[in-house]
Structures are given as C-alpha cells and as structure tokens.
UniProtKB/TrEMBL annotation:
Keyword Metal-binding among UniProt keywords: yes
InterPro entries cross-referenced by the UniProt entry: Cyt_c-like_dom, Multihaem_cyt_sf, SO_2930-like_C
Taxonomic classification: Bacteria, Pseudomonadati, Pseudomonadota, Alphaproteobacteria, Parvularculales
Residue ranges of every copy of the Cytochrome c domain listed in the record: 163-258
Gene Ontology molecular functions: electron transfer activity; heme binding; metal ion binding
Name of the protein described by the UniProt record: Cytochrome c domain-containing protein
NCBIfam families cross-referenced by the UniProt entry: chp_HNE_0200
Domain of life (superkingdom): Bacteria
Organism: Parvularcula maris
Transmembrane feature ranges: none
Keywords: Heme, Iron, Metal-binding
Length: 357
C-alpha cells in the first residue's frame, strides 16, 4: 500500500537541462529515507482514471516543474513548460520468499510514500521537458533498494508472480530509450515525444490523499502545476467504473492501452485501426478485415465480430503473449485478464453481424 509521508525532510528537486545524471537520486524527485520511498519537496503525486497495464505492477506517478504551469489544450491535452519532470515508478508487493503479487490495477487512495519492507521497486521512468522537447529516461533500482541507475539500453528483470492465475516466473522488461521514444510519439510523421497519460480527462477524478478527499485536477491547479480553463474537463471514464456504460469503459481501456499507436497519425496507421476515444464504426475494428496484421490475426476475419469475442482479432491479440501477435507489442509479458474480460463482454453484447463478403 501507499502511505502518507510526514515529518520527513524532503530533498529539493534539480532540473538537468542537458545531460541525464547516472543516478535517479540526482534529480531529487524521489528519495529513499528510512526504508521508504518518498517524494522530493514540491513534487506532486497523481493517478489516472484508466492507466496503461504493465504486468500488474503498481505505479507511483509524480510531476514537478522548475517554474510555470501546464495549460489545457485541444481534447484535454496538457502543454507542460520547459523544466517539467514527470516520473513513474513501477513496483510490486513482495513476499518474504521474494515472489511478487499482482497489485490492484486501479487504486482509489493516493499518497506519496512506499514502504520498502513490503514492496520491491523495479524501475523509474522520467519524461523531462527540455528546450528542444521531451526526453525519456529510465532508471533501474538495485537489489538493496537504495538507488536506481541509468539504463539507456533497457533491462530484463526476472520476477515470479504468486497468487494469480498466471502465477510463475515471468520477464519484466524495462524498455530501452528508443522504445520509450517510439511509444511516446503518437504522431509518427513528426516523431515528437510527448506525455501520454496526464491529460485533463485522465486527471479529472475524485481522490483520497491521507485523510482528505477531493478533486485531483483541482489539487494540481492549486499547487500551481495546471492552469484550468473556463470549461470543465471532459472526464475520461474509469475502465472499472461499474456505473459507466460497457461501451464507455471498453473504449477508455482501448484508448489508454492502444491509441498511442492506433490513431490516424500513429505508427500503426497502416493497420487502418483507430482506437482513440473519438473513433467510430469500422475504424474501431467492427467488421473490419485486417490490412497489415499478418500472422497476428489468429486466423480470424475481422477486428471485431459482434457477439463473437472468440472470433475477433482484437481480443485474440490482447489475450496473446506470442511476440508476433500480442498487443500492445511492448510493455507487457503477461495478459491483463480483467481488461481482456471487459473487452470480451463488450464484444459479446454487440448487436449485428459481419458480411461474408
């Protein structure tokens, strides 16, 4: 679980405008203090309505700015100032035998401290906004859980998952610098790197921080990190919100996990599949024959065949761990069973049929 830090002396973060330091601690955004991971001075935690799945890891997300504030742009995108440092730390609950357990994919509570006596830190990824744009940086934590070191070429961390239907050994893959840049460039033509998760719609949610409940986007605005517009943000549906429609939940899940590549300008545009929130009809895959899936079709004819998730390419690929078929193709070694179940239900309840021609 995450705990609320109190009575700890915080390190002031540092911005590195050119080179990436060899250790994570040099940034000052996070620090290990008395067996706990805590945030630096002025660093704000945040979470998302529907986050990207990464092998059942928990994620501690933070943002810090040297100066200025993020403004809200088109479709809720955030324009962050130079001097912004966004971090995402991946970690697991760890047993006494060294196995890790699947963390809750969606957490209601949010605070700023991780107890390292019961958790294992794996990696921390940074997105750094410099004068020439965003730069991805990855750090891998040591066995002693005291420091993380720069890993430009990525890493493979062997883990064993316990108490789960996919229990057993698996390879947790830390992406290399080029892979990070590829996923964070939703416009393939420009190749411009940008944050994917923190949008106004993803950040607009109720939260519990310690003993206080409130609106997350408002907290970030009060901290000076976001300048709110005149209109309220269009909230992106939580994928696990039982009060929302099945279609809203499934589309939010696909947007968070797939649309960074599968959008009209994305690196997967040749597939003709658009999984962004605003897409409709065949663009989403309904009765759409594959264009460039190759062996990844699993022998199925349509991206989505209404009423038949077992015959749909989309769920076949989301449920696969074959490197030649799995989607997303980076960022996971395991299947997100709960996400797959949501997509199966969504397709199973669709009306209509696909033409044979």
């Amino acid at each position: 679980m995450l705990l609320t830090a109190c009575g700890q002396e915080r390190v002031r973060p540092s911005f590195h405008p050119e080179a990436n330091p060899p250790t994570l601690s040099a940034w000052g955004a996070l620090q290990v203090e008395k067996g706990r991971l805590i945030l630096g001075e002025g660093v704000e935690p945040y979470t998302l309505n529907t986050p990207l799945f990464t092998d059942y890891a928990s994620k501690l997300r933070t943002v810090w700015m040297l100066s200025g504030s993020a403004s809200i742009g088109e479709e809720g995108s955030l324009d962050f100032p130079v001097g912004t440092v966004i971090t995402k730390t991946f970690y697991y609950p760890e047993g006494e035998d060294g196995t890790v357990t699947a963390a809750a994919y969606q957490s209601v509570d949010l605070s700023s401290e991780v107890d390292l006596s019961t958790h294992r830190l794996i990696e921390t990824r940074l997105l750094v906004r410099r004068e020439d744009g965003w730069h991805p940086v990855s750090y891998v934590w040591n066995e002693e859980q005291t420091e993380a070191t720069l890993k430009r070429t990525g890493a493979v961390v062997p883990l064993t998952l316990a108490d789960h239907q996919q229990a057993g050994p698996f390879a947790y893959v830390v992406p290399n610098e080029n892979q990070c840049a590829g996923c964070h460039a939703p416009d393939a033509a420009s190749g411009r790197i940008e944050p994917l998760g923190p949008t106004a719609g993803q950040l607009s949610r109720r939260e519990v921080v310690g003993d206080e409940e409130g609106e997350q986007l408002l907290r970030l605005a009060e901290a000076g990190f976001v300048t709110l517009g005149d209109e309220p943000a269009v909230v992106q549906t939580r994928w696990d919100d039982a009060s929302a429609s099945l279609d809203q939940r499934a589309r939010s899940y696909l947007a968070a996990n797939c649309a960074h590549c599968h959008n009209p300008q994305g690196p997967a545009d040749t597939s003709g599949l658009d999984l962004s929130l605003g897409a409709t009809g065949a663009a989403v895959g309904r009765c759409k024959p594959p264009i460039a899936a190759g062996s990844g079709t699993g022998g199925h004819r349509f991206g989505i065949e209404p009423g038949r998730p077992e015959a749909s390419i989309l769920t076949y690929r989301v449920g696969s761990t074959d490197p030649g078929a799995m989607m997303p193709e980076l960022g996971r070694s395991l299947v997100h069973e709960e996400g797959l179940a949501l997509l199966n239900q969504w397709i199973a309840e669709m009306d209509g049929t696909c033409s044979e021609t």
